[in-house]
Write the structure tokens for this entry.
Amino acid sequence: MSEIFQVSDLLNSMVRLEKTGHDFYTKMAVESADAKISSFFHFLADEEKKHEKTYTNLSNEYKNGLSIDETLDDNYKSYLNVLIRQNFAFDNLKRPTLKEALKFSISLEKDTLLYINEIQTIFKNEKADVFSRIKQEEESHLKMLSEYSQKNL
């Protein structure tokens, strides 16, 4: 693989993913007439904002530092490159139903967990406490969304 990228590139992708989540959850909270649903999405939006800040700080910390390990094979590097280049738009969900919103939300949380797993692989034990905490939070969000979906749809 000829393209060289930094760990900060992967972290910046996490920032974009968290921004997408925040924007989407905020939109759903504002547009919901049901106070419980609105509160649920506001909570998720606030969580995404905290994670965005964490990833922004980490990205800035590693801006000129940690490169993707040269010992990783080219297939894995290509896979990471696909993750970095991924687009996290939700334009096709102009006015989603609650079912569509929950499905999209579950997908966002799964994508986030996928990223965290890959970042942990690259970082090895560095920043393990940060990624472990965020991973637990994201797993909790996924569980909440899944349970909410099962109970309300």
About this structure: The radius of gyration is 16 Å. The CA atoms of residues 109 and 140 lie 10 Å apart. The mean pLDDT is 82.
